[in-house]
Amino acid sequence: MNNSEPLNVAEKLSELIKCKTISYNEEERFDEPEFIKLTQKLEELFPECHKVMEKELINNFALVYCWKGKNESLDPAIFIAHYDVVPIDDESDWIHGPFSGDIADGFVWGRGAIDVKDQVCAGMQAAEELIKEGFTPERTIYMAWGGDEEVSGDRGARVISKEFEKKGIHFAYLMDEGGAITVDQLPMIEKPVAVIGVEEKGMLNLKLSCKGQTGHSSMPPNHTAIGTLSEAIKKIEDNPFPTSLPTSVKGLFNTIAPEAKGIYKLIFGNLGLFGGILKKVLAKSTTTNAMIRTSQSVNMINAGYKENVLPDRAECIVNLRIIPGETIESVKNRIEKVIDNPEIKVEISYGVKPNEAAKIKSLDSPNFKTVCETVKEVWPEAVPAPYLMMGGSDSKNYDKVADDIFRFSPMIVDQKELDGMHGTNERISIENLENMVRFYVKMIKKSC
Q1: Is 58 exposed, middle or buried (0-12, 13-18, 19+ CB in 10 A)?
Q2: Cβ of 199: how many Cβ atoms within 10 Å?
Q3: Are β-strands 107-109 and 103-104 bridged in parallel, bridged antiparallel, or unpaired?
Q4: Which end of the chain has fewer CB atoms at under 10 Å, N or C?
Q5: Known catalytic membership, residue 154
Q6: Facing residues of 387 across strands?
């Protein structure tokens, strides 16, 4: 680091990316020094924040900052994100090393660049700039950075939210990662759409297992354990969950209807009449299909140990993302009904804790309108709209302590940048990062 002059926000993000804060499912692989290094790095990179804000360290790596406001009668606001990242499968495929933090070709490269060290960095940078200006918020602002969102948030966000609950702290609104400004996900509208997550899918992992007849492979039964399990998997994939239009999805298409092309303007604006047609359109794309149904994906399978030995057991993990209106229990029951085979045992896998879908708070709240107004100030051409977040976030842990919860990553993303999330060559453009800071500065000023 160059200590002679302040680093810009891209250089600060680069420093955070260099910390290998990888979350593994195996607890013994947790590299605590790397997490502690990042918490210390924040002190170096954002000195003004650490002069003004009260900092609390939870479980040695989760961080809570409190920026006292002038009016204690106002409920505080909270900005949250996580700085842990998913593992790397093959580093040789990366143009720039996953923990290099290289700044090249107008991008900052590395794991966490868009998921979501960028939001930790941009949030702190926004506060840093405002403090330097002499700004003091009207309402108190909290910033909470978790370090284990990728493996459920049990030691980070969940603990932090319980502490707030114990202290009786309730927030006017919460902002977390989520939707972004999309330019190629909804081809029926020419303008970019800023999708703001107001609902979030639940998550459930089911373990399917069956026992098999052991012995030599030269004398096999009609179906091995693998064959029986495979049949169950095929039934699941051949029978997707039914479609529905949650409140957030209806809100999205009602909002973009005036900007839609051709017949879509009529369809989106009259969902009571044309909801069935819309569902058929959305079902054709993997991206939009996930907006209208509980998704199911067989991601892991384990069976057999030698090519000439019949497997005594076969098992797989089915990852399900639960749409609002369905529950963990109803989803598990449906899977059992679809399989319809007593030889297959279906049980909840608790490697990552399941959670119910997070339902909408309100689309009419002043806070939602403020988010939309702030989007328009930074990206005048964008259309802000509510959205159902398909992935999971730390925000689900804060449902009891926040009136409004918004899941929004304030940046423009195309498919290439989206592919880097949990994938290869993750990166964020410097322009996006700088605009993210602008968004948080304006959001804080407008609402706090």
Answers
A1: middle
A2: 22
A3: antiparallel
A4: N
A5: no
A6: 197
CA dihedral 143, 111, 150, 145 (to 10 degrees): -10
Tokens of 335: 């899977």
In whole angstroms, how large is the CA radius of gyration of the chain? Answer: 23
Given 102, 118, 128, 149, the catalytic residue? 149
Which domains does the chain show, CATH number per domain?
9-184+359-447 (3.40.630.10), 202-348 (3.30.70.360)
Q: In angstroms, how far is CA 418 from the centroid of its own chain?
A: 12
Contacting residues for 226 by C-beta, under 8 A, at least 6 apart:
212, 303, 304, 311, 314
Residue range 263-318, pLDDT digits in tens: 999 999 999 999 999 999 899 988 889 999 999 999 999 999 899 898 999 999 99
3 state SS for 25-84:
CCHHHCCHHHHHHHHHHHHHHCHHHHHHCEEEEECCCEEEEEECCCCCCCCCEEEEEECC
Active-site residue identified among 15, 84, 176, 200: 84
- Predicted TM-score (pTM) of the model is 0.90
Is residue 328 within 8 A of residue 204, CB to CB? The reply is yes
